[in-house]
Amino acid sequence: QREELTRRRDKISRKRERLLAEEPEVEKDVQSLNEELESLLANIDYINDSISDCQANIMQMEEAK
């Protein structure tokens, strides 16, 4: 899931850059893309935090053995 979100983020970033390069007046479209990017980044951060928590729990369980 993290990889999929990262790919989506990269795709949207490229689209945003292309729009800005082609037509500087497309600010409304770019704002929408920025909001979607922020959402994707928040999801990626959440997933990374969850992975870190799981890894910490695994380490604690291994140490308890």
UniProtKB/TrEMBL annotation:
Where does the source fall among the domains of life? Answer: Eukaryota
- Identify the keywords attached in UniProt to this record, alphabetized: Coiled coil, Cytoplasm, Microtubule
Q: Which residue stretches, if any, does this entry annotate as coiled coil?
A: 2-50
Instruction: Kindly state one GO CC term assigned in the UniProt record.
Output: microtubule
Looking at the record, the residues that make up the KIF21A/B second helical domain are 1-65
Please give the name of this protein: KIF21A/B second helical domain-containing protein
